[in-house]
Specification:
- This protein has one domain.
- The protein is built from two helices and three strands; from the N terminus they run E-E-E-H-H.
- It is 30% helix and 12% strand.
- With 90 residues, the protein is α+β, with helices and mostly antiparallel strands.
- The protein has a three-stranded mixed beta sheet.
- The longest helix is centred in the last third of the chain and has 14 residues.
- The mean pLDDT is 77.
- Helix 1 runs antiparallel to helix 2.
């Protein structure tokens, strides 16, 4: 998987009625950094780009894990997803 295939952009998902989205020009070989942990897309599984912010798959899963475990009763399906993700990252 090339580094450019590891980046998912949500820029076009914004409502068109809102303010126009500035298109950020990035070179194909220029790394994209996670706004939360600072890692480049070359060191993570996937990177999601939003308007002015980026989040890597690992930070996303940490946030999801926090939200699920905050209730202290994760569903078995949610726990399976978390277990699979973290086992593949190691």
């Amino acid at each position: 998987m090339s580094d450019s295939e590891k980046i998912v952009s949500l820029k076009s998902a914004r409502n068109k009625a809102k303010e126009p989205v500035k298109e950020e020009k990035t070179q194909a070989n220029e790394p994209v950094y996670c706004s939360f942990c600072g890692r480049p897309n070359t060191q993570v599984v996937k990177m999601v780009q939003g308007p002015g912010v980026n989040i890597c798959s690992e930070c996303t899963m940490i946030a999801v894990q926090y939200l699920i475990l905050e209730d202290r009763l994760p569903s078995s399906e949610a726990q399976k997803i978390l277990d699979i993700f973290w086992s593949k990252i190691k």
